[in-house]
């Protein structure tokens, strides 16, 4: 598969840029000429059920979900109107994985001014984020320290 070009739901050409990171199910890439969004491309073509899930997530987006997550904006198709291979989501900058905050040695390097109060606020915000997801009818299936991001504020 050529990872240079995909198409969004409006059949607009999306040019894939530099690789940002990779996980168990897919890789995140920059999008050329779009500094605000990134593309997640799955390693394998998603099942029909996962493709349907991505479509539903895009259709059922709301301001609360977008305020607490990198919520899918539009599916990505390898061919115009073809199967979904990924999606576009907002680019998150200025944040670190949460383990860099809760691990004391890493906290000294990445969050040197953070105190107990900051840890409690982050825990409260994480719980509030889960509450928003659940209230919107979603269950979070991949909870790990790499999928939760925090900043100095």
Keywords:
153 residues, alpha+beta, 28% strand
Description:
- The chain is α+β, with helices and mostly antiparallel strands.
- Helices cover 32% and strands 28% of the residues.
- The chain has five helices and eight strands, in the order ββββααβββαααβ.
- It has helices spanning 48-59, 63-68, 99-102, 104-110, 116-135, and strands spanning 5-7, 13-22, 26-31, 34-42, 74-77, 84-90, 96-97, 149-150.
Q: State the helical fraction.
A: 25-40%
- What is the residue-mean pLDDT, rounded to a whole number? 93
User: Sheet with the most strands?
Assistant: 6 strands, antiparallel
Structural class, by secondary structure, is alpha+beta
Q: What overall form do the CA principal axes indicate?
A: globular
Could you give the order of the helices and strands? EEEEHHEEEHHHE
**Residue fraction in strands:** 25-35%
Tally the helices: 5
pLDDT < 50 stretches: none
Q: Give the terminus-to-terminus CA distance.
A: 41 Å
The total count of strands amounts to: 8
What integer value in Å does the Rg equal?
A: 17 Å
Give the strand line-up of the largest sheet.
1-2-3-4-6-5
- Chain oligomer state: single chain
């Amino acid at each position: 598969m050529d990872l240079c070009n995909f198409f969004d739901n409006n059949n607009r050409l999306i040019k894939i840029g530099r690789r940002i990171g990779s996980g168990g199910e897919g890789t995140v890439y920059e999008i050329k000429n779009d500094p605000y969004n990134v593309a997640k491309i799955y390693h394998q073509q998603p099942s029909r059920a996962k493709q349907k899930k991505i479509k539903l997530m895009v259709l059922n987006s709301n301001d609360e979900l977008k305020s607490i997550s990198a919520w899918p904006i539009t599916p990505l198709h390898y061919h115009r109107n073809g199967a979904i291979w990924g999606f576009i989501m907002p680019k998150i900058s200025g944040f670190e994985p949460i383990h860099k905050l809760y691990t004391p040695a890493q906290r000294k390097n990445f969050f040197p001014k953070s105190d107990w109060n900051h840890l409690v606020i982050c825990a409260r915000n994480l719980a509030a984020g889960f509450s928003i997801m659940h209230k919107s009818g979603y269950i979070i299936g991949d909870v790990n320290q790499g999928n939760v991001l925090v900043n100095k504020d």
